[in-house]
Design brief:
Length: 410
C-alpha cells in the first residue's frame, strides 16, 4: 500500500497505530491509511472505546522513535513576513475560564469533535458500546442525538445555523455527511469522501478518495456534487481543512505521498492554489507546515523543524504557528504545545505535556481547569469560538473514560 502524506510526517498517524486509540481531530488525511487497512482486516474490537485521549501530544513518528530534545528559545514568538497589525481586540489580562461537563442523552463516554464560530453549537459523539457512535449536537448546552449508518461516526464542524458536517465509514470506505435539524444527508460525491469544514453560507470542504490518494474538494451546498479543487501539480494530493465566510479555502497538501506538508490557499476567483511560505523558526526555517483550521485571516497549524539537519530527520521540534493569509506574516510561538484549534483573534488552544489542555492568548499560555476546579484539565480541545469565550473538548477521567466538556472564558 502506498503511504499517504501523514503516514510519515504528522503526529496524527500515531492515532492510527494498532496500539494507539483513535483521537478526534479537525483534519484526517490519515483516513486513507485506515480505509486501506479496513480492506485487509476487520477493525480491532474495542478500538472506539479508547478513541479520545491516548495520543502522544508532541511527537511525529520520528520523534516517538528518537526522543525529542529540549529546545527553549529565549523569545516567546518569532514573527516573519511583512509587518501588519496584530489580532483584533488584544488584552493583556489573561481570561478567566471555567469548565463544565456537557449533558448527554445516553449514559457512557462522550467527547466534542467540533463547534461553530459563535460557540452556541458543539458537535460530538457518544460511546454506548461497539463500533457505532451516535452523533450528538449541543445547542446552548442542550443535547440532541443523531444516528448515522456505518461506524466511526463523527461531525468535524458546525456553522451558526447548526449545519454539521463530517463522515462515517460505511462498508469499507468513508462517506461524507451533513446533519441539519436532526436529519442526516449524504453529500453527493464520487467514491469515498469526508467533510471537514462548513461556513455560514453552507459551503462545505473536505476530500474524496481516489485509490490511495486524497484530493481536496468543495461542495457549494449540501445538495451539490463535490468539485475537485486544483492542485499545484499532477503528483500533489491532500485535503481541504477550512473555509472562510468569503469562500477562501485552506488545505493541507504535499507533492506526492512522501512530500512535506504545505498550506494551500484557494482564493475566491482564482483558478490555481497558492502555497503559503514556510515560516521562519528559531535556528532556521520550517521544512513543513501542517495547517489545521482557518479563522478570519489566520491559518492555524504546526510548523516542524529538524532537530539535527545533518541527519535523516531523526527528530523534529514542533512549533504552534499561525499565518496571516492576507499579509503572509507568520507568528511562531515558542511555548511548547500541540495546537489543535484557533480563532480570528489569533488565539490558539491545544495540549501541553501530559495532555494538559492549554489556551494561548495575547497574555500568554494558561492551563484550562477541570470542571469544578481541582487543577488543570487533562484531555483535549476540539473547538473554539471566534471570540474565544467558548471552547469544546473532553476530559480524561482515566481508565479510558472521558466526558465532553465546555469551557467558558471571560
Amino acid at each position: 500500500m502506498t503511504m499517504t502524506i501523514d503516514e510519515k510526517h504528522v503526529a496524527d498517524l500515531l492515532r492510527q497505530l494498532e496500539d494507539e486509540p483513535d483521537r478526534p481531530s479537525r483534519i484526517d488525511l490519515a483516513r486513507a491509511i485506515r480505509e486501506a487497512r479496513r480492506r485487509r482486516r476487520n477493525r480491532r474490537a474495542g478500538a472506539a472505546g479508547a478513541a479520545a485521549l491516548g495520543v502522544l501530544a508532541f511527537a511525529a513518528l520520528p520523534v516517538a522513535l528518537h526522543p525529542r530534545q529540549s529546545v527553549e528559545p529565549p523569545e516567546r514568538a518569532v514573527v516573519s513576513g511583512a509587518p501588519t497589525p496584530g489580532p483584533a481586540s488584544p488584552s493583556p489580562r489573561p481570561p478567566v475560564c471555567k469548565g463544565e461537563y456537557l449533558p448527554v442523552p445516553v449514559k457512557g463516554r462522550s467527547l466534542v469533535t467540533g463547534g461553530d464560530p459563535s460557540g452556541r453549537w458543539l458537535a460530538g459523539r457518544l460511546y454506548p458500546g461497539g463500533m457505532s457512535h451516535p452523533i450528538v449536537l449541543w445547542h446552548d448546552g442542550k443535547p440532541e442525538k443523531v444516528t448515522l449508518p456505518g461506524s466511526d461516526q463523527r461531525m468535524l464542524d458546525v456553522n451558526r445555523d447548526g449545519l454539521a458536517v463530517g463522515e462515517t465509514f460505511v462498508g469499507n470506505r468513508s462517506q461524507a455527511w451533513s446533519v441539519r435539524a436532526g436529519r442526516a444527508s449524504r453529500l453527493p460525491v464520487d467514491g469515498g469522501a469526508g467533510a471537514t469544514a462548513v461556513n455560514d453560507t453552507g459551503r462545505i470542504v473536505g476530500f474524496r478518495q481516489v485509490g490511495d490518494r486524497q484530493l481536496p474538494v468543495v461542495w457549494k451546498s449540501p445538495q451539490s456534487r463535490a468539485v475537485d479543487l486544483p492542485l499545484p501539480g499532477p503528483r500533489w494530493e491532500g485535503t481541504a481543512v477550512g473555509i472562510g465566510e468569503d469562500g477562501t479555502v485552506v488545505g493541507k497538501v504535499a507533492d506526492g505521498p512522501s512530500g512535506d506538508l504545505r498550506a494551500a490557499i484557494w482564493r475566491t476567483g482564482s483558478s490555481r492554489p497558492e502555497l503559503l511560505p514556510l515560516p521562519s523558526l528559531p535556528d532556521g526555517v520550517a521544512f513543513q507546515f501542517a495547517p489545521g483550521s482557518l479563522a478570519g485571516d489566520w491559518v492555524v497549524g504546526t510548523a516542524y523543524r529538524e532537530l539535527d539537519p545533518g541527519r535523516a530527520r531523526t527528530g523534529w521540534q514542533l512549533y504552534p504557528t499561525r499565518i496571516n493569509i492576507r499579509t503572509g506574516k507568520s507568528v511562531v510561538l515558542t511555548d511548547p504545545f500541540h495546537v489543535e484549534v484557533g480563532n480570528d483573534r489569533g488565539w490558539l488552544a491545544g495540549q501541553a505535556r501530559g495532555k494538559v489542555v492549554v489556551l494561548h492568548t495575547e497574555a500568554g499560555l494558561r492551563e484550562l481547569p477541570r470542571p469544578g476546579g481541582g487543577g488543570a484539565a487533562v484531555g483535549a480541545v476540539s473547538s473554539m469560538s471566534d471570540d474565544g469565550h467558548v471552547l469544546g473538548g473532553q476530559l480524561d477521567l482515566g481508565d479510558l473514560q472521558f466526558r465532553a466538556v465546555r469551557w467558558t472564558c471571560r
